[in-house]
Amino acid sequence: MKNKIFTWSIAMCALTITASCNNKNESKQTSDSSGADSSKVSFVKPVGTAPNWGKTMTPEMLAVIEKLSSYGDKPIENLTPAEARKNHTPTDAVMDIVKENKINMPAPKVDTTGTNINVAGGKIHLRIYTPKTGNGPFPVIVYYHGGGFVIADLDVYNASAQGLSEKTGAIVVSVAYRLAPENKFPTAHNDAFAAYQWVLNNIAGKKGNPKKIAVVGESAGGNLAANVSIMARDRKIIVPLHQILVYPIAQSDMSTKSYQQYAASKPLNKPMMEWFTKHYLNNMDEAKDPRISLINANLKGLPATTIITAEIDPLNEDGKMLAAKLSAAGVKVESKNYAGVTHEFFGMAIIVPEAMDAQFFAADKLRSAFK
Length: 371
Description:
Elements: H1 59-70, H2 81-84, H3 90-100, E1 110-119, E2 122-131, E3 138-144, H4 158-168, E4 171-176, H5 187-202, E5 208-218, H6 220-234, E6 242-246, H7 257-261, H8 270-280, E7 304-312, H9 316-328, E8 333-342, H10 353-370
Parallel strand pairs: 3-4, 3-5, 5-6, 6-7, 7-8
Antiparallel strand pairs: 1-2, 2-4
Helix pairs in contact: 1-3, 4-10, 5-6
C-alpha cells in the first residue's frame, strides 16, 4: 500500500474552494476557528455518473471513487494480504486529486513523534500527535485505524488522527496494532488494549492528561475502540470518557440490508469483508465471538458513544444495530448517518464536505466529554 501521508488541518476550510455540501442529514453547518463554512471544502467534480450501487453518491465522493478505480488495481479479495497491501488506497486517490487541482496544503498544527512499546509477543508502534500551541496537560485520544485487521497503516489514516488532534486540541495516539494473517485474532484486540494501558501509564510525561481520555476508531478500528472500553470496564481501570465509533465492524451477519444493497460498493464490498474475516480469524466460528460481534457483548457501563455511519457502506447496518444495543444497555448514544458517501469517507475532509462535517461533529462530542 502506498504510504502517502495525508496531512491537512482545519485551516484548509479557509481555502477558496466553493462546492456546496450535499449532506442530506440536514445537520447544522459548522465553522472552524477562521469562521469558514465547513460545507465549502471542495471544488472537485467527477467525470462520469454515479454507479448503480451508489446512485445517491455526492459529486465529491464520486470523484474520489473514480480516481481510486482509475489505478486499475486487482480486487483485494483476489489477492494475498501481501499483494493487497500494495494496492492504492482511498488516501492515494485523495492526495492525487489534491495535487491535480493544485490545492495548497497548510502546515500541520501538531508536532508528530513516534515510539515503540512492548506488547505480548512483540512490539508495536505508536504515533503521537501533540498540539503546537498550549502547554498542556492536553486531553488524550487513542485512535485505531481501519483496514479489516489485515491492511492499512498509520499513514493511510493520518488525516483522521491529525484532524482530530487539530480540531480538539488534544493529543492523539495512533496505534499500529499488528495485522493478520501474520497475527491472528485476538492479537489486534490485545494490542489495542495494551496501547491504551501504555497511554494511561505514560502520557503524563508527554504533556497528556490520562484522566481525560477518549477512544476513536474507524471500521475495524471502531471495533477495537469499543473493545478497549469493554476491557477497561472489566479490568476496573480508567474507562474512556467517550468513544467515537466510525462505521464500526459490529456483527457477523453479512446478509443485512446494507450488505445486500452495497455488496458491490467501493472502497469496501461484501467479498472484501469475507476476505478480511477469513484472514483475521482462526476459524469462522470466531465471527460470533462478542469481541467481533459487538452486538452480542455486555455493553452495560460503557462510556457515552457517538456512532458515525456512511450511507453507501455494507457496514451501515452494523453501526445502527450497535447503537440500538448500546442504548438498550443504558449507554448514552448519539448516531449520525451521512448520506451520499461511502466507507472511508471520514478522512477525506479536504475533498468531501460530509467528511469535514463528520470530523467537526466528532470533535464537538470529544471536547464536550473532556470538559
